[in-house]
Design goal:
The structure is a homodimer of 327-residue chains. In chain A, 55% of the residues lie in helices and 10% in strands. Chain A has a seven-stranded parallel beta sheet with strand order 3-2-4-1-5-6-7, with helices on both faces.
Chain lengths: 327, 327
């Protein structure tokens, strides 16, 4: 891939060159210094894509479902994007060869862009910037963006916050829906997908899930429906994409979409600020000072106060310096 | 509960008054302004307690296991503390009445202090300060602290970081150990507990788990062992507490304990600083300014830069002001 100047990169991106999108995504992942400026310039081009989160426990068939949804969307949509955070997903290369081969059907389609991103650390927590990645896909002209994540708590919540419609995928297995409830998945689901519904016990699982949902309070007039799919056979996919469209219509008509998106941009602003302050504060010097102070038995409580005072002092000196330079 | 002055509270805490511990825990949860100072004063009294994390998927029997471990420890330990973050745990009152009644056996023991704490938001993320809560239990004189958390990603990692020995509890159920592996539990387990091992299939599950673990690289000479328990019958509890003691011995002898604890205090310092900066930056004014700017279509990227500049300016003005006052 050629090296890009920022202006050239932006130009190539706007002309729809896929390597430019790839490059921008890498910059987001690596927290490249000029990324914020580039994202800022692309921001006015965002807002049209529908962002769909796909989450649920490992083994629920999320990747297969995403694959089939993409194929379905490609009948009408020009461009569809996939972001996979699941380290065990075939999209991220973490699965068996057979799965990967199946994924190549959509992987070879020039209207589909698939990107796997690393999760932060071993457990939970998405990579830096699922939001930024979605903005990029959006600005690039994708009309649907599917974000797949492994079902481990924090990352689910992050995906739910970053997307417009959240699908929670579970399989008919004894107690699975109760476990999902306990794990907090009920709160984030806009639509439940009971996948592998050709299995024994699917009807029971369906009734169990519906009865659990019926106890939940409705949020702004939307009660998460349960859809049965058998993604590997392509069953229920058209119905699911119809339901996603209904959810979109509901959010738009009730004004809830605007609310959600505003909440999202507020959260994003907070996160960007925290990242920047943290980067500025944690110089190698301060990190070393912290380590050695703590090793000598200073309490973290004392140490944090000391570092904050030091940080403020540094900022003050910087400001004075820039003042002097200006005068 | 009477109102305490800080000095009185500290005095009562040091004399071992349980209401003082309860009050301090509440202060930690509520981020009471003088908490840091109090924690700092208690810090030299910490370090003796052994902190045990108990995590795993919902329904694995974690609470029953904790209950039995506490009873076992109370044969030799003066004081044992329990912190429950699992909203579905009987300890937090989230479970059925029958479970709660069983818990009362240890709940009535004056040598046991049980505290349930809220998780941050619906999903993942522990409440503010599992670390601080452990410090309080520790300084109060508890020799064992058990921290129970529901198995949803982020919170597990937080517990693993806050404790000395992490137990991962699973049940013999088809594919459960593979799911645990996918969910990242393999990485954090110091000891695996195969609970409900009186169930059919326990032997198979045991072999499956051991074979998965054998593929894992050993960390500093410790390979997480698998223990079979049937906590509801009290089976395997003595063996488990023996294994926890072995792990402790291992960590102490290899110097790994010191490393772990140093890493923990560094992380805690970072967190304290981030919390404080965030509190200072997010005044109601700035929050309102952010909301309205974003509502008018400003990008989060622009907005974050503007707020950071404004924050720095505020700090500079504060410094100037305090200088003027001093002179």
């Amino acid at each position: 891939m050629p090296k890009y100047e920022d202006s050239h990169l932006l130009e190539a991106f706007r002309q729809g060159h896929r390597p430019a999108l790839a490059r921008m995504l890498t910059r987001v992942e690596n927290q490249h210094p000029t990324t914020t400026t580039l994202l800022d310039q692309l921001y006015p081009s965002t807002g049209d894509a529908w962002r769909i989160g796909v989450t649920g426990p490992p083994g629920a068939g999320k990747s297969t479902l995403v694959n089939k949804l993409v194929t379905n969307y490609r009948k009408t949509d020009d461009q569809v994007g996939v972001i996979a955070f699941d380290p065990t997903s075939p999209f991220t290369g973490g699965a068996l060869l057979g799965d990967r081969v199946r994924m190549e059907t959509i992987g070879l389609d020039p209207g589909v862009f698939i990107r796997s991103m690393a999760t932060r650390g071993h457990l939970g927590g998405l990579a830096v910037g699922v939001d930024e990645a979605c903005d990029l896909f959006d600005a690039f002209g994708h009309s649907k963006i599917l974000v797949e994540t492994v079902g481990v708590g924090q990352s689910e919540l992050e995906v739910a916050n970053a997307t417009d419609t959240t699908l929670v995928v579970i399989v008919p297995q004894s107690g699975d829906s109760i476990q999902a409830m306990k794990a907090g998945l009920m709160e984030i689901a806009d639509i439940f997908v009971l996948n592998k519904s050709d299995r024994d016990g699917a009807e029971d699982a369906y009734r169990e899930l519906v009865s659990i949902i019926s106890m939940k309070e409705m949020e702004d007039g939307w009660r998460a429906p349960v859809l049965m799919t058998a993604a590997n056979k392509g069953e229920g996919i058209a119905e699911l994409s119809g339901m996603i469209a209904s959810h979109r219509k509901h959010l738009v008509e009730t004004g809830r979409l605007e609310q959600r998106r505003r909440k999202r941009t507020v959260a994003k602003t907070r996160r960007l600020i925290e990242d920047e302050l943290s980067k500025k504060l944690w110089t190698p010097d301060r990190a070393a000072q912290t380590e050695s102070g703590l090793a000598q038995g200073d309490s973290p409580y004392t140490m944090s106060q000391r570092l904050i005072a030091d940080f403020y002092e540094e900022l003050r000196r910087e400001q004075e310096h820039s003042k002097t330079e200006r005068s």
